[in-house]
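User: Sorry, what's this?
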Amino acid sequence: MHYTSDTISAFSSVAHICRDVNYGWLIRYIHANGASLFFICLYLHIGRGIYYGSYMYKETWNIGIVLLFLTMATAFMGYVLPWGQMSFWGATVITNLLSAIPYVGSSLVEWIWGGFSVDKATLTRFFAFHFILPFIIAATAMVHLLFLHETGSNNPLGIPSDTDKIPFHPYYTFKDFLGVIIILALFLTFVLFFPDLLEDPDNYSPANPLNTPPHI
């Protein structure tokens, strides 16, 4: 493993991955932009659920909300790991929001930091959780699908009956396969030709606690 979850070497280890590891730059950009694509699909899925009234199935919907928060936490911790300017200041600002919680806010923030500021302990535990949470997300997604199969998903017509239905294969198999191919083609085009489009330029500078970016 080439990444180092240490405040001194984290930034340079990411640079090492991009410059010295075979296809490391490609893995990094697929990983970073893949997270953005995942959230685009996630919000489209939520929008579809709201439009079709899927929130009426409370168990499925509530598990979906849990999945959303777990995914956001995973993405946030992953954004901190490169230890650039936006990584450090994003971690500082977002975690400090918890200090607004009455009575326990300040103690909770220090507990998350592992000290009195965002530092090595914070980066180390964020790295651990960024690795562990996807497995929890996968298990929660299975529960989400179990509830979905119990209630059934909504459709544009809002018809729950079994009449006038067609087999999943080959009709929807080919339809889904075509959709996956189109999304992958667009994603690879994005990764190979516009890899930095969604990146903040400040995150290509090492974290500096004494220099706050102007837009923070």
Remarks:
- The helical segments are 10-19, 24-51, 58-80, 85-96, 105-113, 120-151, 171-193.
- The chain has a mean pLDDT of 93.
